[in-house]
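Appendix B, Record 12. Input sequence as logged:
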Amino acid sequence: MSQLPVVNRSQVFAAATAITAFGFLTFAPPAQAHPMLPFPLAPACSQWGFPGLFALKQSNLNTVSFNATGPRANGAMAEANDGEYHGPVTGGITGANLDFTIPWRGRGQPDDAPLMSKGRYQGSVGTDGFVHGETHDELSVDFAHWDSTVPLVCITSAASAPPPAGPPPPAAPPAPSAADAARLAVNATGPTTLKAGMTATYTVTVSNPGDLSAPVELFISFNGNLHQANQVTPAGGFDCTVNNYAGGTSSVHCTVGQFGAKATATITVQGQGSAPGAGELVVNINSSDPAAQFVQKSQQLNVTIT
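Logged structural output:
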């Protein structure tokens, strides 16, 4: 359903075609123009809600939509690709975090027909009300990134602190020039051939040759027959967590509040070949600073498992 599908399941029921035949849930590299990971929460809102018609686009350009109002979407009927797939929504929004599940069936199939996939959608609301996140098929190893195409609505505004007493604040410093900005880049290196069952070290380097610091999010995905193994070794102030999915796939999410000007950080991860075939290590970075520039926003390293 978007740049990168989520559900690639070989199970087929009578009169239904395997989902990969439609390209609905086949893995594709993330588009560099799209933000890939949860954005920082909008400080002015403590509880977000669905606006009525909610729609999202996955990283392979397929779409999902359903109607829901408020923080819960339980019972809403979702459609994908203008009715090519359908399924009921379970879950909703807690604060600024989305987490809902849709069991997908093909067009015209009854509610008790075998599932073609079961997509779990997780994401966070950005400062503009749009949601960014990822989805994975709980019945297989496939996943995708996604972005909402309509903003959520703020249900409960965050309480504002009263202004401090005292003299007026000093005049604001002049705004930085266009040349003064964070300039962010990410690069992944490591073996491109690996024997099944063996583990290799992959190095992800984040750099900022710019003149200003910026908050940075880093997303590392292990796809195909390359799986994440052992622990992640962060550096440069990054805090990293590992997300494990059904079927053995996983991803690593790293954040740092401010990545300094002229700084370089190296995060080390371990990849293991699960079986002979193709694997990929995909890295993406993003920043909530609208002035930040990207020298290289994402990279895919193809790995052959022998």
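Residues 2-157 form one domain.
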